[in-house]
Amino acid sequence: MSRSGEGRFEEIARMARRVQDAVAGVRGTAVGEGVRIEVAADGRITDLRLADPLLAQAISRAHTRALAAAAGSVSDLRRELTEEPAIAHALRVLLESTPAAHDRDRVEDANPYALPVAVRRGYGVG
């Protein structure tokens, strides 16, 4: 790749990171009929308030199982793409050219899509 091509690739990588960071901060909230729920753009429950803690526990467990099932299917679908040699090479170059992940990107739990630890503890889950 030419020097100008490498610069453009790095610019695109920075832009993608900026957009990814903005998307990571998006939250949607709904309130009604004794429920308040907040979700991230990827479907991860970030806050859940219910009058019945047993119901909250059941929802948390079901949500974790459903997300694991979906993640497995997505992984299978993406594997087809990432096993293509040209795409695998482009991904390696992109990953090598982007800065290291920020501290906030650390996964605090085996399932980053589950309810946050503080919320689970509030309902006596995990």
Walkthrough of the structure:
By secondary structure, this protein is an alpha+beta fold. It is 56% helix and 14% strand. It has 4 helices and 3 strands. A 3-stranded antiparallel beta sheet has the order 1-2-3, with helices on one face. The longest helix has 30 residues, at 53-82. The chain is elongated, with a radius of gyration of 19 Å. Mean pLDDT is 77; it is low at 101-108.
Per DSSP E runs of 2 or more residues, the count of β-strands stands at: 3
Mean pLDDT: 77
Share of helix, binned: 55-70%
Give the helix/strand class: alpha+beta
List the main descriptive attributes of the protein structure presented here.
126 residues, alpha+beta, three-stranded antiparallel sheet, 4 helices, 3 strands, elongated
Task: Summarize the SSE layout with pairings.
Elements: H1 3-24, E1 27-32, E2 35-40, E3 45-50, H2 53-82, H3 85-97, H4 117-122
Antiparallel strand pairs: 1-2, 2-3
In brief, what are we looking at here?
The protein has helices spanning 3-24, 53-82, 85-97, 117-122, and strands spanning 27-32, 35-40, 45-50.
